[in-house]
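B., you asked whether I could sanity-check this one before it goes into the benchmark set. Here's the sequence:
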Amino acid sequence: MTFTYEERKRMLDNVPVLAVDGAVFKEDRILLIRRNTEPYKGYWALPGGFLDKGETLQDGCKREVKEETGVSISIKDTIGIYDDPKRDPRGHIITVAFLAEARTFKIIADPKEIMDAAFFDLIPSNIVPSAKSMIQDALKLRKQSL
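And here's what the prediction gave me:
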């Protein structure tokens, strides 16, 4: 379900909302999306989004990554829960981030939500601030599991 920026803002003014993000790796490269919506339009971020009613966290992460990038994933671990009420300018969004491996590698970016998607060796400078900390945590977790 796609909401306008204003609709999301109204939703988030009332209660915290649950979201999921995927730190998806293909070998040593991480999958990032370039946002096509506010906030942070034009910035790179992890693929993810809001959890749907009746959906598990892992299923929501798999769905969001697939919808935004066309990439199927296998969840490996939970990176963490990011719940700082000031983390997202839209409102209080609680994000559960997952460490995942790409099962398919052909990227098909959804132009409604994102400008581009690609696997990166290095984190670009124009990245959403909260995504940067999630990626750093994912890299630490990934290093521990190797």
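One thing to flag: The two ends are 37 Å apart (CA to CA). Otherwise nothing jumped out at me.
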